[in-house]
Design brief:
The structure is a single chain. The protein is mainly alpha-helical. The protein contains 4 helices and no strands. Helix 1 runs antiparallel to helix 3. It is flat and about 70 Å long.
């Protein structure tokens, strides 16, 4: 008996490159935060250059949003599509409830 195979989707490496770049930029932005860059006085050529580098790093979120929009552009709007958000909202509310309870019980 011959096994039926679904047609394979070709993986677009450009999308993986954009995803990897955006992930690197997120790490770089957080590194700058942890290195106390934001507490320094913006004076001199070196700080100007670092400020420009930081602005380039801040493209991380727009890259993720563009990638998400591109990958979702072929989805059809339906009841099931909108109900998919419900799972995320329920998980968020559960995690928020646990966090609020822990802060109330343990930290105050």
């Amino acid at each position: 008996m011959e096994e039926k195979r679904l047609p394979e989707k070709q993986r677009d490496l450009n999308l993986d490159f954009i995803r990897g770049l955006a992930a690197f930029l997120v790490i770089a932005v957080h590194f700058m935060m942890m290195s106390e860059f934001y507490y320094q006085t913006m004076a001199g050529g070196r700080m100007y250059l670092l400020g420009c580098v930081r602005m380039a790093f801040m493209n991380c979120v727009p890259l993720f949003l563009l990638l998400s929009g591109y990958l979702c552009c072929e989805k059809k709007l339906s009841k099931g599509y909108y109900l998919g958000v419900l799972r995320v909202v329920v998980a968020y509310l559960l995690c928020s409830g646990v966090s609020v309870f822990y802060r109330w019980w343990r930290l105050e």
